[in-house]
Amino acid sequence: MKRAFAAVAALIVLLGPEFAANSPTKPVGVPYSWPTWVLPFGTDHLGRDVLSRMLHGGRPLVLTSLAAALAGVLLGAVIGLAVALTKRQALMWPLDAIAAVPPILVLLLTLTAMPDRVGLVLAVAVVGAPLAARVTQAAAAQVVGRAHVEIAIARGENWAWLLGREILPLVGGTVLADAGMRFVTSVHLVAAAGFLGLSVSDSDWGLLIVEALPGASLQPWALLVPVLGVALLAVSSNLFADRVARHSRGMLG
């Protein structure tokens, strides 16, 4: 059941534009029209099809969030592994400084300097990197002290060999599970950027939410649908992360 739920969510989001019946930018009816057979979720404040805008906005939201999550996890994992191997906690200080800044402030500052999709990916990646580094360091610290790793170090094996053969196979599941959680955070931050007017897409789900707020009493579906869409993405990602975490629990034991 969980697999089917996640698969359907992924299919709808990634192939959404192919299913959209109308343009996400052109009016197709009277503003704030209630749902009909032709327009299942009605229209927004400009008379645009809510369902078509949702279908067009899902793919950029997911791909942007995925790119940001992967970049953040990669940066955090590299630093976390370096700290675990070298015992140099000073490597973590820059990330600790970033973690002390509110995520929304990091988002605003970065998008002010780089108001495009690259800036959004960079901002969200930077926000997610500190926690990813801590998770990776904690997992790797349990492995570095094991006998087989110490023997490999005593043999004079280089770092690439140690990481590829002795450490990453044991901490990979934990890092992948954390990546699922970073993706959830990325979805929320990318949607928040749209909510704050910093969207990089005309159909961003965060933008749909903020645009629907003034007329929520006239046409609540225009607000409920994007809110539920973000929630669906978060739940699906959490289910995936939980499944990966269960498979990786025994690897560090």
Automatic annotation (TrEMBL):
**Coiled coil ranges:** none
| Positions of the ABC transmembrane type-1 domain | 62-241
**Record keywords, A-Z:** Cell membrane, Membrane, Signal, Transmembrane, Transmembrane helix, Transport
**Location(s), subcellular:** Cell membrane
Write out the transmembrane intervals.
Answer: 61-84, 91-112, 118-136, 183-201, 221-241
- What residue range is the signal peptide? 1-20
Gene3D superfamilies in the cross-refs: MetI-like (1.10.3720.10)
> Under what name is this protein listed?
ABC transporter permease
Please give the organism: Allokutzneria multivorans
